[in-house]
Amino acid sequence: MRRFISLGLLSCVLLVLGSQVVAAAPPDGITLMSSAPGTVGETYSLNVQTLLMVTGLAFLPGLLLLMTGFTRIIIVLSVLRQALGLQTTPPNMVLAALALALTVFVMRGVIQQEQNNVVQPYLAGQISFDSAMTAAKPPIQNFMLAQTRADPLHLFVDLSGGHYKELHEIPLTVLVPAFATSELETAFQISFLIYIPFVLIDLAVASVLMSLGMIMVSPTLISLPLKLLMFVSIHGWVLVLGSIANSFVIAPGS
Description:
By secondary structure, the protein is mainly α. The protein has one domain. It is built from 13 helices and two strands; from the N terminus they run ααββααααααααααα. The chain has helices at 2-13, 18-24, 46-56, 60-66, 70-84, 92-106, 108-123, 129-135, 137-147, 150-160, 172-211, 219-233, 236-246; strands at 33-34, 43-44. The protein has a two-stranded antiparallel ribbon with strand order 1-2. The chain is elongated, with a radius of gyration of 24 Å. The two termini are 27 Å apart. The model is unreliable at 1-7 and 9-41 (pLDDT under 50).
């Protein structure tokens, strides 16, 4: 499991390297290990590195959900749409694209660190494939540690039976589920605060209609335009997206 997470993490960082690695692969068959001139020891050949990265691409959806802020953002946006009373507007594709764009914005510091510490040195031949895998871990680990709550982290550390003196000693197999659980808790807390004003509008409209004896009129017909008017007038999208972005703790060094 730990190996799979490491491979998937590196595939996210080194995705841009795929075409260059394939182009540089030697034509004389597949070799498992190779030794570069002037280096000590052996490393994976370019063929094997390409295979590992392509295999790691299968883990990209899971890594996007479990190791980034995408889960928190998409949950809040989905609850916001439901609170407005809109079932399919904005469409799921638009919400997912918006969540992905905001995820990249929030994690731009992590992406820049991966670019500087992993991608560029690997392309320049300054570090090996194994060194790139090792260097790719700290930035994303610091990001997850900064967002992870104490209770989920203690829970999964206790379940794993491990004892760690420093937070950075916690392996990804323990940190990832703790981070995902923390993201769910944070997302539902933000969603609750967003949902309350729209519920109050629904209750007020329903009370007014009932007092007027208009029982046959659906409150949604009246409350929906009122909620849209309020949301647009207060620049709701700016407030919501800004609140989501500010809810992320900036990791040290980002």
